[in-house]
Amino acid sequence: MKLFTRDETLFSLKCYISAMMALYISYSIGLRNPFWAMMTAYVVTTQPWAGSIRSKALYRLGGTILGSAAAIAIIPNLNQSPLLTTLAMSLWVGGCLYISLLDRTPRSYVFMLAGYTAALIGFPAVDDPIGLFDKGISRVEEISLGIMCAALVHTLILPRSIAPVVMNGLDKTLADARTWIVSTLRCAAPEEDRQNRRKLANDITQLRLTASHIPFDTSNIRWSSHLLRALLNRIISLTPVISSVEDRINALQLAGQPISPATQEVMKNISDWIESGSQPSPGQLQTMHSAIDAITPAIESDLQWHTLLSASLATRLHELVNTYAKCVQIRIDLDAGIQSASDDAGASRRKPDLHIDRGIALQSALAAAIAIGICCVFWIITAWPQGGTAAMMAAVFSCFFSTLDNPAAPMRVFLRYTIYSIPVSAFYLLVALPSIHTFEMLAMVIFPVVFVLSALAIRPAYALQAMAMLFGVLGTFALMDVNQATMDIYLNSITGQLAGTAVAALVASLFRTISAERAVVRIRNANRQDLATLASARRGQITPHLTSRMLDRVGLLQTRLPAESREASPGTPDPLLALRVGNDIAVLQSALQSLPRAGQSVRRMLDSLAAFLHKPVHNPVQGPGEDLLQQLDDALTTVLQAPAIGSSHHRAVVAMVGLRRGLFPQTAHYPVTPTTREVRS
């Protein structure tokens, strides 16, 4: 194991200072459980950045107050009926967990904390509900004190800004997008680039989640957080455009039509500009757009398939130039700290649009309720004094790992390392702490173990194990607060902790764990449902929310697909395909009102597409049937033969070409005839 780095050492020291400050103030003002304040100071600081700690501190404080109010409302009123109390607490924790899982930003801490804080306060007070209000107020004071001490110390003492992490990630994301564009335009995309572009989606999602802490950061970047979100939104909209350009180039090669020298020259000029990373002048942009216009074929009724592909490619090149130029401009404005430079700065203030699986959220809530119910029923039947501890731990761990596909695995790790912490916690509780009579000696004795474990807690390889041992040790310190530091009470308490963790892990493995394959199917079916809803709509829609959500799903798929499935092959569906299809459907919907003569044919095709997408599939290679292909070709022919009215006609044709490529990528002939159908089969 390597020695601790400067950042790890500084982080651990700041955690220790905040914990000792909370502990000292708790003793000074006579709080009931000073060690709860100390433990809270460590619970809040799971990441080293000041912005993250401050944002989580605010949300945790709100969740603590809400959870305390729930415990005060439930326990005294239902105390005479243990089964009703169990049912009410299980429903409260499960309901709060369900709501928290519908928000993947730090705001979710409010409801998650509200859930298990009610369990932490309510279950120990079942035997004495009369004093619950005072205990609840005291617990809020202790937790709030720990939160405020942690936020204060990490803000004032050498605060570590999250800005370098976000800006470095942003620049890397832009560089990856630039590399993808250049390799695409030069028709030289190696397989490694194909893998990196899928990782790009996950990087964008992680950046968006990390950037949600920016408004709470200590650096000046918090005043430009809306610009940062605007840039991320632009990169999100850039992704399907690059994918479409790449697809059209591949389609032309599949159709046996080499790209014309003029088009190659235009693509080379665009790639040279993008590779330079410079901001284009208005004249340079106009020159590139004029060059693209020169290679754009006119839309006529008798166009061949390769000509339609060329027209689609030219349109996507226009979008690529505009979108990337806007990304460069916003990045420069972000460095300059310009507040109102971005046209879409206002739109960027909306919350991130991320994939939400309500079914999995409901499963997690039910698993938490079942685990709590099992512990409470055992507690009622056996009258075990530490049954409440088991129920508390079941609630806490059911919430902690609820965002994972397989929460049982980290629960088992946590359980194992909690067992490893027993000798350390027993030594402190039964030997060291009873012999200490001054705060200074207490702080010195505690320092070695908490310093080492908190420093390891921010190392990814040791984070889970270190946190398990740290919380195992700190949790037993609370017995000192109530003068219960005896061997029998300690063994009962640690048994309750282990039993609650084990029950949570067992219930999660039976009712909550899903395989990576099932998660992939659910994510892909969610994409299909969004596309079906878009296709069946009766009016034009703008899809920034949809694009963002689908790109997030691409990142989620990337982390769940096995390595061999990530390799591009003819039988493997492109994870970016849904993005392109969604954008094309949205463009076609918006152009429908300007196509009165062809609108009925297009609407019939979209309804058939929606009916196909509404059916969930378990085979990712399964595609639409020949009937939909025939309807799509008929609709495209009708649109081509309709009189051109404004730009809507051109956009509709390009969108239908994109749909045909997305839904039937192996069909190289248009329109499909009996002869070409035999060739395709």
Automatic annotation (TrEMBL):
InterPro entries linked: PHBA_efflux_AaeB/fusaric-R
Spans traversing the lipid bilayer: 9-27, 57-75, 81-101, 108-125, 145-163, 359-381, 387-405, 417-435, 441-458, 463-482, 494-514
Subcellular location: Cell membrane
Domain of life: Bacteria
GO cellular component, one term: plasma membrane
Record's bilayer topology term: Multi-pass membrane protein
Record keyword Phosphoprotein present: no
GO molecular function annotations of the record: transmembrane transporter activity
Keywords carried by this UniProt record: Cell membrane, Membrane, Transmembrane, Transmembrane helix, Transport
Protein name: Putative p-hydroxybenzoic acid efflux pump subunit AaeB/fusaric acid resistance protein
